[in-house]
Design goal:
0% strand, mainly alpha
Length: 491
């Protein structure tokens, strides 16, 4: 067994042990399993949210996008900071409302706000559909990491199955507590590896960060600037906007808010996490350092940039350390996604079908759903897919369609009717699905637009149609709001 395997298997065993041990001394009912009994302080909430943010998307996708696309990768820095600014005002009222009513999931929140179980079911379906690609992203990245870091001693398929079994096991036993414990180790290791690689590689190969950028600019003029078309400044701004609005619309990020003991924990995280976002710079430096040292990676192979340069630079034992950090970027967020998806299926899809089911029964169903959801994700992961960043951008457009109805629900006197809420979400999601399946672009859909607008992120089209539907249907149905409320409550 090569030395890299020692570190990879070591971290897998540590993650499993921590995840299983996390349930000790706790009555793992539905509330404990899903939101930790609402007892997490500022530090644990920070680690949970950071654990969900810094995934394989950052570790592989961030470096790969910098390697393959250049300047467009900076969109990650933009939305990754702005979303935390937004959270300072957005999350506390969500937390207060959920705590008062003992809500445990994102669909619970929307169902309560719009007084409609059916709307909660719709939001749950949207959440599950969005979370599956996000879980696939983690498994896809995990397979790449284990395969490359083990010098192909373990295949990508084997790595995916190993990680899937470990995550499903400790999620089944410990729920969100398992994610919290493993996130502590993950943040320490990933931060250390990212900073080291981001500083060492530019100095080792180029003599410094500035010298690295000068060498890239000479070899590939224009690579470090946004292109005039395609992923231009218009694309970057619209993508940052879409991703910022959609960040806390992810069901697992939304639900993590419920786990806080006090609302000030959320505000503290709002001004600490943007600083933590600077870690992305070091990931980008790795990708840029690889541009001239490992040329020629194309398509999905750009996600291999970090490991390709690591393999030619470091001894196997240190490649194993890097691989171990990468494994945790998949396991921790993957476990949170799994807890949330299983809860959505059990609590917000199964429970409405079986209204007589109590919390104990629904909690048992949620635990059973965890391995089932994981099997579905593994199936689609092994079926192939796009690059890591492309996969996430598609899912972001999907969850962002919930933002307009969320914002309206936080207004003191919500002007939006539940009929309008239904219609807007359906129109937005249908548009995202259609443009994704047809691979449409704004330029193709609206050829009459001026060139700068042609590069808008196509998810913006769905969001605009969503908002227009919300306004129009609200105006048409506002007078029926009272009778609708009566009918829904009787349902």
């Amino acid at each position: 067994m090569n030395s890299a395997l020692f570190f990879i298997f070591g971290i897998l065993i540590v993650a499993l042990a921590l995840g299983l041990r996390a349930r000790r001394g706790k009555d793992m009912n539905l509330e404990q399993w899903t939101v930790g009994g609402r007892g997490f302080g500022a530090m644990i909430i920070f680690l949970l949210m950071a654990g969900e943010i810094y995934t394989t998307f950052v570790f592989l996708g961030g470096s790969g996008y910098a390697y393959g696309k250049g300047a467009p990768a900076y969109y990650m820095l933009g939305y990754g900071s702005l979303c935390f600014v937004l959270s300072y005002w957005l999350l506390p009222p969500i937390w207060r409302y959920a705590k008062e009513r003992k809500l445990i999931s994102q669909p619970d929140f929307f169902a309560a706000k719009y007084e409609s179980r059916s709307f909660g079911v719709l939001v749950a379906v949207v959440g599950v559909v969005a979370l599956i690609p996000y879980l696939i992203l983690q498994l896809k990245g995990l397979g790449i990491i284990i395969n490359v870091a083990s010098y192909s001693a373990i295949s990508s398929t084997q790595g995916i199955w190993i990680g899937a079994v470990i995550v499903a096991a400790y999620v089944f036993v410990s729920g969100i507590h398992g994610s919290a414990w493993t996130s502590v180790v993950k943040d320490i290791l990933v931060m250390s590896v990212a900073v080291f690689l981001g500083l060492y590689l530019p100095y080792h190969y180029y003599g410094g960060i500035g010298a690295m950028f000068e060498a890239i600019d000479q070899a590939k003029p224009g690579f470090l600037a946004l292109p005039e078309s395609g992923q231009s400044s218009t694309w970057l701004v619209s993508t940052v906007l879409l991703s910022t609005l959609g960040f806390y619309m992810w069901p697992h990020m939304f639900t993590a808010t419920f786990a806080a003991k006090r609302e000030d924990a959320l505000r503290k995280n709002a001004y600490v996490l943007p600083i933590y976002q600077l870690m992305l710079l070091f990931i980008f430096f790795v990708g840029f350092a690889t541009v001239l040292q490992v040329p020629g990676l194309q398509g999905g192979d750009i996600d291999l940039a970090l490991f390709k340069i690591s393999l030619q630079t470091f001894d196997p034992w240190f490649v194993g350390v890097i691989g171990a950090a990468g494994v945790l970027t998949a396991l921790v967020p993957g476990s949170m996604i799994l807890v949330t998806a299983a809860t959505l299926v059990a609590n917000n899809i199964y429970r409405p079908l079986r209204p007589q089911a109590n919390d104990a029964h629904v909690g048992f169903v949620a635990k059973l759903m965890a391995p089932c959801v994981m099997l579905v994700a593994v199936y689609f992961t092994l079926g192939g897919g796009d690059t890591i960043v492309a996969l996430l951008l598609m899912a972001y457009a999907f969850v962002t369609q919930l933002f307009p109805v969320l914002l309206a629900s936080l207004v003191r006197n919500n002007p939006v009717t539940r009929t309008a809420a239904f219609a807007s979400v359906i129109v937005g999601e249908a548009t995202v699905a259609w443009v994704t399946l047809t691979k449409s672009t704004v330029a193709a859909l609206f050829p009459f637009l001026p060139a700068p607008l042609a590069d808008l992120n196509v998810g913006i089209v769905a969001l605009v149609l969503n908002i227009v539907t919300l306004v129009v249907v609200t105006l048409l149905t506002r007078n029926l709001q009272g009778s609708q409320t009566t009918r829904v409550k009787q349902a």
